[in-house]
Amino acid sequence: MARFDVYRNPGSHSSSTPYLLDAQSDLLSGLDTQMVIPLRSLAYFPDVHLPEDLTPTFKIEGVEVLLETPKMGAVPSRILKEPVANLANEHSRILAALDFLFQGY
């Protein structure tokens, strides 16, 4: 597993939240859990205007998704199978969203 890998969501809400972003440091890969941020389909946010600093958008496999930073949580590492994408090239936007969540700026 690599930080900023994107995995398909195996959970019951996969239709609205098709992907999970691994946000955990590679240094902690030995843990049996990973901190992930849901990547929710923009189709489920038609009229909601959320702060771009907190919830940036990306395109994964042709699907427009929103990084639902406030809903970040730990999941068992075993549920994350093969990555379908990697957002390392977007690290500054992802880290800015995490900073905004935890520090308010």
How big is the Rg?
A: 13 Å
Q: Which of globular, elongated, flat, extended, rod-shaped describes the shape? A: globular
Q: Give the SSE order as H and E letters.
A: EEEEEEEH
Name the helicity range.
Answer: 10-25%
Structural domains: how many:
1
| pLDDT averaged over residues | 93
- Label the CATH architecture: Roll
* Total of helices: 1
- How many strands appear in the DSSP assignment? 7
By CATH reckoning, the class would read: Mainly Beta
Low-confidence stretches: none
Instruction: Kindly report how far apart the N and C termini lie.
Output: 29 Å
Quick one: biggest sheet?
A: 7 strands, antiparallel
List the defining traits of the structure above.
mainly beta, seven-stranded antiparallel beta sheet, SH3 type barrels, 105 residues, 7 strands, 1 helix
Question: Describe it for me?
Answer:
The chain is mainly beta. It has one domain (5-103): SH3 type barrels (Roll). The protein is 12% helix and 32% strand. It contains one helix and seven strands; from the N terminus they run βββββββα. Strands 1, 2, 3, 4, 5, 6 and 7 form a seven-stranded antiparallel sheet that branches. A hairpin with a 2-residue loop joins strand 4 (57-60) and strand 5. The longest helix has 13 residues, at 91-103. It is globular and about 40 Å long. The mean pLDDT is 93.
